[in-house]
Structures are given as C-alpha cells and as structure tokens.
Amino acid sequence: MLPVVAAALVDGEGRVLLQRRPPGKQMADLWEFPGGKIEPGESPEAALARELAEELAITVDPATAIPLTFASAALGQRHLLLLLYLIRDWQGEPRPLEASALAWVLPQDMHALAMPPADVPLVAMLERLL
Question: What is the largest CA-CA distance in the chain?
C-alpha cells in the first residue's frame, strides 16, 4: 500500500492548480494534483503541507486542509491510496519547483487533459463541489 496526499488548491475563480510531471519521471507530461508520499510517522495533513512547500514553495496550515475524497488504484506491484484535500488558503505564490509547468484549470476543463489514472476519478468530485 502506498498512501499519498494531493491538494486541490482552489483560487477565487473556482480554478484548481494542476502541475505537469517533468520529463524523465514516471508518467512524464501528465497533469496532476500537487502532493506526494506520506512519510512514516507523518499525518496526511502534515505530509501535504510539507509536499506543497517542497513542490510549490507555498505555506499551508495543515489544520486548514479539508478532506475531500480519495482514489484507489493499482500501481505496478503496489497499490496507491490517494487522499485529496481541498485547500483554499495558502501563503506565497505557487511556483513549479518540481514540475515542468503549472496551470489553473476549471474542473470541467480537466477532462481534456492527460492525467494519471488515480487522479481522473477525482475530477468528477471537484465538478460537483465547485
């Protein structure tokens, strides 16, 4: 089991921040929700705040992360459990420190983007919520 966290960072216009996986990485060039692995002994919310600082150079208070939904998918020999959190407040301007690009996208427009299989089912929940 591989537990990972991801963020739906939502701006004032209802757009969600996606990042493009860089060349040379698994699933390169796919658009995904920012986030990453939960380290041993780390809460999902603390992991999310750490990952967003590392990937986007923003600060998020873990207490403000709202659990939204999850996805479950096979990933080679492992199984991925992806926990999606809604984030509406952060400090700093997101920058692509570990991605090749960032984009603010309305949920209904995400269907046109190539995304990792675990991220795809999360889009429908965002469409209903936002």
Answer: 40
The predicted-structure confidence for 40-53, as pLDDT tens digits, reads as follows 999 999 999 999 99
Specify whether the CB–CB gap between 48 and 63 falls below 8 A.
no
Three-state secondary structure call for residue 110:
helix
Q: What is the DSSP string of 45-82?
A: HHHHHHHHHHHH--B--GGGPEEEEEEEEEETTEEEEE
Backbone angles phi, psi at 49, to 5 degrees: -60, -45
pLDDT value for 103: 98
CA distance 43 to 36: 12
- Cα 123 to Cα 114: distance, rounded to the nearest angstrom: 12
List, in order of start, the domains of the chain with CATH numbers: 2-129 (3.90.79.10)
